[in-house]
Task: structure prediction
Amino acid sequence: MDEPATKLAEVYGPVFTVYLGMRPTVVLHGYAAVKEALIDRGEEFAGRGSFPVIDYLSRGLGIVFSNGESWKHTRRFSLTVLRNMGMGKKTIEDRIQEEALCLVEALRKTNASPCDPSLLLGCAPCNVICSVIFQSRFEYSDKKLLTLLHYFHENFRIVSTSWIQLYNAFPYLIHYLPGNHNELFTNFTEQKKFILEQIKEHQESLDFNNPRDFIDYFMIKMEKEKHNKQSVFTMDNLITTIWDMFSAGTETTTTTLKYGLLLLLKHPEVAAKVQEEIDRVVGRERSPCMQDRSRMPYTDAVIHEIQRYIDLVPNNLPHVVNQDIKFREYFIPKGTAIFTSLTSVLHDDKEFPNPGQFDPGHFLDESGNFKKSDYFMPFSAGKQASFFSSISRGKRVCVGEGLARMELFLLLTHILQHFTLKPLVDPKDIDTSPLVSGFGSVPPSYELCFVPV
Result:
């Protein structure tokens, strides 16, 4: 919707209404309007809007597409558990570093031969989530892991197609027709089976005094609240919450990494400068860690620029207003759907000159120091906070934002510490346009060689 939205904004200004099917939807375009709604007035705009194809699957449960008390309790509980786990003997950073080394080993086994990196790049973030939720990880050749990744990859592609936009506009009509929404429902059923298997195993070995992972914590909470008829801690909510954490925690990081490597193939001079910075700050003898990031401004700028340039979720997830409000000079009734154009913020030409160009300089000052930007909103509007911080500027900021930032930095620096990325075609012939761009921007398929340094 972004190009049409930009044209409409030129005519009608930063706040206007469009009809998606029968539903009026208010579009907020540009940094000032998006910030005012999601940050300055975050409480009023904190409702989750309808996304019918996913609503059919989640039934108002989980974290991403729930609302009201259910959302508040599930989100608060999830953040608390994740904070507890982050402070444990093995921190989240330790888990990511271990997984990064497993990824390096798997890439080494490609023997510098041409390969499509999609599945291998997905294994690492997926295993990090597995370690948090199940206290276990899978070998990269494990059929269960590869099947699970295939479903997430396909789901992201399907929800980004125009067919799903049509489904969301006319759900009662399209639901009963053949189409790729049925493929999405089948994938969800299979993923649910996998999650249920893990829960059953946990039920058999649960120790109430010694929770091992997210499932244990949730099941202990379920037991404590079993007599409370209003409790949100139910088996159905556990399944949907795990599905949410997997979907958000695996596919967004995987897609960003896959797109990031494609951009580095297109711009080998940028990859070379990152490698030079890794050599200078980290060297070859130890693994990169999060403490290194403050001394690696160029690498930090490159990762920010990848996220800005690819514009992963162009129109954010839909919001609704929780009450009747006056916004600017407009009256917006309670329950009205709100679309915030993140593209209009990430590609603002005053903040980012030549926004259509991939340029790490967008996040560097004249001295080469990292330069923060309030316009950097790849995860919706939220404080650039730790994954374990429940305080966020935007009420609906991505729960896993800190985890994603940590994974992108550690996985990318580990890859570039060990390998030079070799394209199969001339860099100038590489097309970085998304394959499809609807709900998300899906990168094109490509192959490359990971040549050991």
Q: What stands out?
A: The two ends are 42 Å apart (CA to CA). The longest strand covers residues 23-29. Residues 47 and 320 are 5 Å apart (CA to CA). The chain is about 50% helix and 10% strand.
